[in-house]
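Section: Multi-chain targets

For targets with more than one molecule, the full set of components is provided together so that the structure can be written out for the assembly as a whole rather than chain by chain. Components appear in the order listed by the source. The example entry contains two components.
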Amino acid sequence: MEYFLELFLGGLTRGSIYALIALGYTMVYGIIELINFAHGEIYMIGAFTGLIVAGLLTMYGFPGISILAIALICAIIWSAAYGFTIEKVAYKPLRGAPRLSPLISAIGMSIFLQNYVMLAQTSDFLPFPELVPEFEFMKGAGSIMSSSELVIIAMTVLSCIGLTLFIKFTKLGKAMRATAQNRKMAMLVGINVDMVISATFVIGSSLAAVGGVLIASHIGQINYYIGFIAGIKAFTAAVLGGIGSIPGAMLGALVLGLTEAFATGYVSSDYEDVFAFCLLVLILIFRPSGIMGKEKTQKV
Amino acid sequence: MRIKLTLIALCFAMVAMLAGCGEPQEKKLVLGVAGAHSGDLASYGLPSVNAAKLVAAKINAAGGVNGMMVEVVAQDDQCKPELATNAATKMVSDDVKIVLGHICSGATKSALPIYLDGKIVVMSPSATNPPLTQSGEYPNFFRTIAPDDAQALLEVEFAKKLGLTKIAVIHDKGDYGKGFASFCKQFIEADPAVEVVLFEGVTPGAVDYSAVVQKIKGSGADGVIFGGYHPEASKIVTGMRKKDLVIPFLSDDGVKDDTFIKVAGKYAEGVYATGPKDLSSLPMNQEAVKAHKDEYGEDPGPFFSQAYAAAQALLAAVEAADSTDYDKVVDALHNNYVETAVGKIKFDSKGDAEGVGFSVYQVKDGKYTEVK
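Its structure, encoded as tokens over all components, is:
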């Protein structure tokens, strides 16, 4: 039973990280039907920003928990700036173009950002400081769950609740929903669609930055390539849950994280990806729009 | 057209030159050096040419081998099997009796049958693929570097010395990591006193390895052997230590790297890793490196010491056999100890050098220290 619990918690942590990144994919897709392949790189840039800021603050002797807070805020601001700029540079000029063009542009952006960070920083693996302090009460339970895992899960839950409330009750959230339903109509009733799209990118990038800093602090190392695999997995989670749907992305991420954890625990880690992607294929066969996606007739 | 003619003329000129080389001459011992001397792997092959030339110069200065002057003749194979057979055929037709090379395992494997037919002794400084010697097909093949499985054997022996009985073997699914882990598994299974409780591959680059760490814990292992490189190793060690799983962690020379200590930080303390023996304290090796610096003005490249040792061993065997007769040279290699740049070595019945190999290192105070 303890083994099951440990695997469950491990899967939950992994799923939480996927969820933080997947939300960005799903929101962008929901609004402009574009798969933003550069999103994984935003996560990576968030982690690098966290590293640089944490390094500076440690040098000036800030206390532990404030480093985490300031690093998170800086990473959010910096990643949001990147998300905003990417949209303006790579996607906005292509808004009227066939759907394939922005997709290719996204892949190009992703490769560009990877190489840019590789050249600007280094291609080596870098150590990442542990920003989450060990909790006193976790000492005994440490063998089951570490404090950083707890923080990751808590932050994800908070972010999800916050995002849901934001979209449900604020004016901007309403505008986002309207734009997602029908962009032209939203424009006609006076919604500034460009602003809404930018806001979507900024929110999605902020969440990815939180994920980047927390996971880097949890596993203790980063390099320029971490965004690729995390991005692919989060994208899978978004598709699994039904791309375009926010609760879908969270559910998909948790299902994916738990599937991987249990496949590793009860079968073999050799088959981790096999099970994850078999699950994806099965769900797409029986529910082509994902677990919580809505059926929509579309001309392709 | 003119270019073509020039080329043809050049070819003739070259053939004529080579023919000149082939003339039988008394008082000369040709040491063939084969390997990648051009192409993208040349950096592995060229140090062996330099090593052979340095050894030859040193021995010639002392009067040669049994009165014969040593001459180094290089053949390029670019580490490509198809070019390696050409190089080997050339050596056979030139009546070369001893060959230093080849560099890559694949090229060595394709060239060996030709040398065997021509009764030529071959010694590689860098081909580590285990079957080259262990298959027993090539009694003419020797090497001055330890094969890949020697590291795994040392690792398992060391694990036993630490008193481990239940070992989890983890690898990164890659050729190098999985190969190493499979050898470890094989050696552990050969001994009934120890067992493999877990044998699994992890996906390089995965977001975290907590599930694998829990699995190691659940398996009741009292030690972990990891085959692969340092990014995965540091993630697994960090995960283990954070989950209060403080059991010995052993790994290979892909982890015996300072980056591992830098990345894993305090969690790296106490980690064991095998790596090539430190040669820098050997006087003969110091002398070889110094000779290289004096002659070429820079530090020698990879496998230089192994190549230097191979040239020394081959020439010493010819001297001991008092001829270049195949059987006598092979006997000498198997039976006589020689002082070389990689230490005092002789060759076992399969052709692997005894006395070269790996050491176990442990991270102590942020540094790899050899475990005596």
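Chain A has a mean pLDDT of 89.
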